[in-house]
């Protein structure tokens, strides 16, 4: 048997940090990354044969749990027909139709391969459609790793962004304005000063990559109002929340009720049902700026791949209202038990929750976390010991305090009980943690 430790040692010689995406290296929680070899329903099994209740869900796609029979069957059928042809294929339009039925503002769709590509394309489209240059984003909102979206906040409100990664040039970052999330007056100031040059505001529908941070009431509406007033596009990044928070994503819990629609949506994660697919979608008017109908270029070898489309179609078809009700209610149970266990252990914390998406922040004020500055100032040192106590007890949490916990339709009472039983000892480990 190959152990996780042996595998990680081999991998570190062959891949930077031993991983293909940084958070998988367990840098912020310490210890040896666990390599999984199979998944079934709410469970994952690692290389050593140990089983875990999975609360990562492949970082979001596994809405239905692992190896859902209908999704697996649809993928098998697609594989039998051939892995891909680089041509049009009937299931592309089927997936596009399923998306539009749920989110009517997604009148037209372009499939891409990753969420990064979706947001990158949405930004190019906004610039191409408006003829303007500047993009406004919020600190702590993650939109993938394209250069211009890896900008960090400068000091002061209306300053232009600084490079957020080595290899991002000042020129690229300087066309991105970075504001604190939920900063209404900062947003108004930026539009007052730069309004004629702003192509787009991009925002996570509800942020969940700095821990979950709910938008304050009216914040998304303000983005909509200001972008409309100044002729900029509103890009609503639903890569994580799309088809997860409701059947119509976070828009279904916000814009649909409040009567607003963004110009562009980006989708990823759930839309591919576990295979690499994402999408940019929006009004016909904006979307037809894309090649070949318009001058904004986007192309790809794999977009619309039939195996990925089959996984996406089967996932959305199986994601019924009952699925969302189930996930919401299980998330409620786990979040309540989490806060009870932490209270019993005397750990100051806030549960950051929007629908079924939630995360925990340690040592925060009673009102919780509202932006990236507050997210970063929490007692994140408490998470490593908490995480490892849960891991030892057979619960696989995201290996970073800044990631949301993902439940699925497959999390039944037995899986949830295992989580609940593990929480008290983990809460005590968090209480005993030292910086
Ligand atoms: C995951 C994520 C992305 C990036 O998607 P990838 O498929 O990892 O490139 C973009 N935006 C948000 C909100 C995400 O959660």
Topology:
Elements: H1 4-14, E1 36-40, E2 43-46, E3 51-54, H2 69-81, H3 90-102, E4 108-112, H4 115-130, E5 134-138, E6 151-152, E7 162-163, H5 170-173, E8 176-179, H6 184-194, E9 198-204, H7 219-230, E10 233-238, H8 255-258, E11 264-267, E12 278-282, H9 284-287, H10 306-318, H11 321-344, E13 349-354, E14 357-362, H12 372-376, H13 383-392, E15 395-396, H14 413-432
Parallel strand pairs: 3-15, 5-8, 5-9, 9-10, 10-11
Antiparallel strand pairs: 1-2, 2-3, 4-12, 6-7, 11-12, 13-14
Bound molecules: pyridoxal-5'-phosphate.
Pyridoxal-5'-phosphate binds at residues 114-116, 119, 142-144, 204, 209, 237, 239-240, 268, 278.
Family: Belongs to the class-III pyridoxal-phosphate-dependent aminotransferase family. HemL subfamily.
Modified residues (N6-(pyridoxal phosphate)lysine): 269
Subunit structure: Homodimer.
Q: Cα distance, first to last residue?
A: 36 Å
| Regions with little confidence, pLDDT below 50 for 5+ residues | none
The succession of helices and strands, N to C, reads HEEEHHEHEEEHEHEHEHEEHHHEEHHEH
User: What is the CA-atom radius of gyration, in angstroms?
Assistant: 21 Å
Q: Give the helix proportion (percent range).
A: 25-40%
Question: What's the domain count?
Answer: 2
Query: What is the CATH class designation of the largest domain?
Result: Alpha Beta
In round numbers, the mean pLDDT is 96
Structure ligands: pyridoxal-5'-phosphate
- Summed up, the helix count is 14
The overall strand count is: 15
Largest sheet: 7 strands, mixed
Q: How much of the residues is beta strand, in percent?
A: 15-25%
The geometry reads as: globular
Strand order of the largest sheet: 4-12-11-10-9-5-8
- In CATH terms, what is the architecture of the largest domain? 3-Layer(aba) Sandwich
CATH fold-level assignment of the largest domain: Aspartate Aminotransferase, domain 2
The CATH superfamily name of the largest domain is Type I PLP-dependent aspartate aminotransferase-like (Major domain)
Helix/strand-derived category reads: alpha/beta
């Amino acid at each position: 048997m190959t152990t996780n430790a042996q595998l990680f040692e081999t991998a570190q010689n062959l891949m930077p940090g031993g991983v293909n995406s940084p958070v998988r290296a367990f840098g912020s929680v310490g210890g040896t990354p666990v390599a999984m070899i199979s998944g079934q329903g709410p469970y994952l099994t690692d290389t050593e044969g140990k089983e875990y209740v999975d609360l990562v869900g492949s970082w979001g796609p596994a809405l239905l749990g692992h190896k859902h029979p209908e999704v697996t069957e649809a993928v098998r059928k697609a594989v039998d027909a051939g892995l891909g042809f680089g041509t049009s294929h009937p299931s592309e339009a089927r997936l596009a139709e399923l998306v539009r039925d749920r989110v009517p503002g997604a009148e037209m769709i372009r499939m891409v391969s990753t969420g990064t590509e979706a947001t990158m394309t949405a930004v190019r489209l906004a610039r191409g459609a408006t003829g303007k240059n500047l993009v406004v984003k919020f600190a702590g909102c993650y939109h993938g790793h394209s250069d211009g979206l890896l900008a960090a906040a400068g000091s002061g409100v209306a300053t232009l962004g600084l490079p957020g990664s080595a290899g991002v040039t000042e020129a690229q970052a300087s066309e991105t304005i970075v504001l604190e999330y939920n900063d209404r007056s900062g947003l108004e100031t930026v539009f007052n000063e730069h309004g004629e040059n702003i192509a787009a505001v991009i925002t996570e529908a509800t942020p969940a990559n700095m821990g979950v941070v709910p938008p304050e009431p009216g914040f998304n509406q303000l983005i909509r109002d200001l972008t409309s007033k100044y002729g900029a596009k509103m890009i609503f990044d639903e890569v994580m929340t799309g088809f997860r928070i409701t059947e119509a994503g976070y828009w279904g819990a916000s814009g649909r009720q409040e009567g607003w629609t963004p110009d562009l949506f980006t989708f990823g994660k759930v839309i591919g049902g576990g295979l690499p697919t994402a999408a940019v979608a929006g009004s016909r008017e904006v979307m037809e700026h894309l090649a070949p109908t318009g001058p904004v270029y986007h192309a790809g070898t794999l977009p619309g791949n039939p195996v990925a489309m089959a996984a996406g179609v089967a996932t959305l078809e199986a994601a019924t209202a009952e699925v969302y009700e189930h996930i919401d209610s299980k998330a409620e149970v786990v979040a309540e038990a989490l806060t009870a266990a932490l209270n019993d252990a005397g750990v100051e914390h806030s549960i950051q929750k929007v629908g079924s998406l939630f995360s925990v922040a340690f040592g925060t004020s009673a009102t919780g976390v509202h932006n990236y500055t507050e997210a970063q100032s929490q007692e994140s040192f408490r998470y490593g010991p908490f995480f490892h106590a849960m891991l030892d007890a057979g619960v696989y949490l995201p290996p970073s305090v800044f990631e949301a916990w993902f439940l699925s339709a497959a999390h039944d009472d037995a899986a949830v009980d295992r989580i609940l039983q593990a929480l008290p000892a983990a809460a005590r480990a968090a209480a005993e943690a030292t910086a």
